[in-house]
Amino acid sequence: MKAMADPDETAGRARVLQLLELGEDRPLTGPEQLELDTLLQRFPGIEFDQFGPELAHLEHAPIFREAAPPPRLRAKIIQAAENDTASRGTSRLRRRIGLAAAAVALVLAGALGQGAIAELARPKPPTGPPGTLGAVEPITFSDAPAGVEVNGAVVAHTWGTETRVEIGGLPVGNSFTVVLVDDNGTEYTAGGFVGSRLPVDCQLNAAVLRADAKMIKVLDKSGTMIMTSALPPA
After folding, report:
1. Cα distance between residue 3 and residue 43, in whole Å
2. How far apart are CA 201 and CA 208, in angstroms?
3. 153 neighbors 139 (Cβ within 8 angstroms)
4. DSSP letter at 234?
5. In Å, what is the CA distance from 169 to each residue of 27, 118, 148?
6. pTM metric for this prediction
7. Which of 18, 127, 181, 202 could form a disulfide with 215 if both were Cys (CB 3.0 to 4.6 A apart)?
8. pLDDT digit string, tens, across residues 68-86
């Protein structure tokens, strides 16, 4: 059974369009602008309702799609805006063309693929010499036991040092502890893990600053050191 429309929502959306139309002819008063801002927060995207057919492309866009958007799509949308606004003044024309351009941008985003757009928008991690806050610093365990494969990295934080390790080949079911060591030989436990048939991927944290950490040790359950990684000065 088709759900009935919410009268309050219908009235609110109609009021948004009314205020937008009013603002094309004169500046909105303070109360009118406040009302419009409030309604736009409640009904985000209502300005683009008139471009529904174009925006519908986004609903079916694959994660990655190399096909170009429909030819002359931008020109067609802008032409439609111009035809609709010819008798309503240049301020309305500029606004609608701006909305049309935004709609085209959204459709192009769909053509590029959501994954590609997310990748472009994702902040790049910091880079720099050892000790750079937030930078991922690869480390090497030079004395790993035979048959053990290990990849590691450390990340400097304001609150301590994060150790990332991926280890495979250790005895299944045995427990291990990762500790960081400073210049004075003081050990700071970062955490532990249990050997598994599959590589173990851990993110461990120790309460020692990267500038003070000089070595990472992996210990077995008896406290015997099974591998180490010397850290460069930070």
Report:
1. 19
2. 21
3. yes
4. -
5. 71, 36, 4
6. 0.50
7. 181
8. 556 666 666 666 666 655 5
